[in-house]
Every structure is written in C-alpha cells, then in structure tokens.
Design goal:
This protein is mainly alpha-helical. It contains three helices and no strands. The chain folds into two domains: 49 residues; 44 residues. The relative contact order is 0.05.
Amino acid sequence: MMFWGWDGAGPMGGAAWAVMIIWAIFWVAVIVAIVLLIRHLLIGSGEGRWTEEERHAQARHLWHRSNALNILEERYARGEIDREEFLRRKADLS
C-alpha cells in the first residue's frame, strides 16, 4: 500500500502527496463539471431560447402593462372612474 503511509521502505515522500492532491483536484473538477452540465441542461435550457433583445422587450412590455394597470387601479380607487369603466378598461389592457 504505497500511498497509505508506507511504501515498504519508509514514509510516503513528497511526490506521492503531490499525486494524491492532483487526483483530488481532478475529481473535484469532474464532479463540479457534471453538476454544472446537469444544471445547464435542466434549468438553463428554458432561458436559452430567448435572445437578449427578446428578454428586454418582454420586460418592457410587462412593466408598461403593470404600470397601466396600476394607474387604472389608482383612478378607480380615487373615484375618477366607476366600476363598469374600470372593468372595461382592465379588459382592454389584458
């Protein structure tokens, strides 16, 4: 059992420790790579279908829609429009 402390002639030398450390780093890197690959395949695949421009356009659309609904709700809460007008305009925005 050469790597467990004794190689038959004396204690383990520095080169054997270096080999053990290098193998440990290698296997940690392999495990991290496998985890990242699985994460990319399971989670990242849905996001990869959108281009950067499409993501920004979608975010702008949702922000403007939300902002318009907020204004409509505020106007209804202040009594500027009645219930029927609120519901009609809300349906138009949806």
